[in-house]
Specification:
InterPro entries: Glutamic_endopeptidase, Neprosin, TAT_signal. The chain is mainly beta and 366 residues long. It has one domain: Jelly Rolls, CATH 2.60.120.200. It has 3 helices and 19 strands. The strands form 2 sheets. Strands 1, 2, 4, 5, 7, 8, 9, 10, 15 and 17 form a 10-stranded antiparallel beta sheet that branches. Strand 1 and strand 2 form a beta hairpin.
Amino acid sequence: MSKSRRGLLAAGLATAVVGATGVVWTLNASAAETPAPSTVAESASADAVAPVNEATAVPPKLLPWGDRPTELTQAEAGADSEEVADAGADAAPADTSGSLLPEAEYAPKGRISEDSTLRKGYTSVVPPAPPAAGKATAKAKAGAVYYLYAQGQQEGDTDGTWANLSIAKPELKQGDYHTLTEIAVQTTNGDHVVELGWNVDRTVNGDSDPHLFVFYWKDGVATCYNACGWTQYSSSMKPGDTLPAGVAKRMGIQHSDGNWWVAYDSEWIGYFPDSLWEGRFTRGEYTQWFGEVAANNQNPCTQMGNGLGPTSGTAARVGSISMTNGPEPKPALTNTTYRYNFKWLSDRTFRFGGPVDDPETDSDNC
């Protein structure tokens, strides 16, 4: 069993999302363990909660960045992110079960499209306290979730994208939900999305380390982290595994032969089949590379990236941005708050992170 907080799922999860148009949807789950298909609201398709499938498809011969796949190096099961980095490994199983099947984890997730940005949602989940903090205080309570972003985005038909992402262990403040860095390929309206990245999320992962995550959306409805609709391919690594802190790794999403394949470092990890969208999502139209914080207030102190502002030469980076069978990458950069900012280094690389100082007070208020 993973280290995630099963008690949250036992209590049930309800996430109501308000988009730019004011539309509200709700995803409910209630079960003693990971929700079974029958416990998910009708707004989520049956495909969304199907068990992880055994791979039958064959990935492209080359990874998105042109290398031939080679087996990833694994650290000891249960190692934390610093131990993974010290071992020079690419990842470590997050638990000692030996299973290569990721577990479905339900928790808040933000979303950005050309037409709208999800800035606020609602959840019944109470984010766990940091391990050393003990029992959650009044600051950690169910209710509103505020999503804040620093992002690059670009329109254009493409088979996918890849980039070098800095992996870090940013501080997730008590009462907040997650901090993450990811790449995403989607339709222009944001209804259908495939996401890949790393997150620090104590609800999903049960600790404060960075972990690999995958996620998908269908018809504007969120599914779950790591297992919903997912087909596992790699025999070395699965979504949810612990990643090394303080390094950069290549991550890629590529459509090939009826599947959206996911690559990490030197391997194809698995895929989301086109059947999840009834064949309506076979090319990307809008591509993104970004940092995201989900917090319980609009001015959080949770760190994005590695916690440094983009003016620092050692701040986190999204680098070597590439579009697969698509336009030349020239993303536009934007943010939704001064607290998390960005700085261009080239057409394909930018630094990002925070929280940074309020320009009016010269303080980050943390």
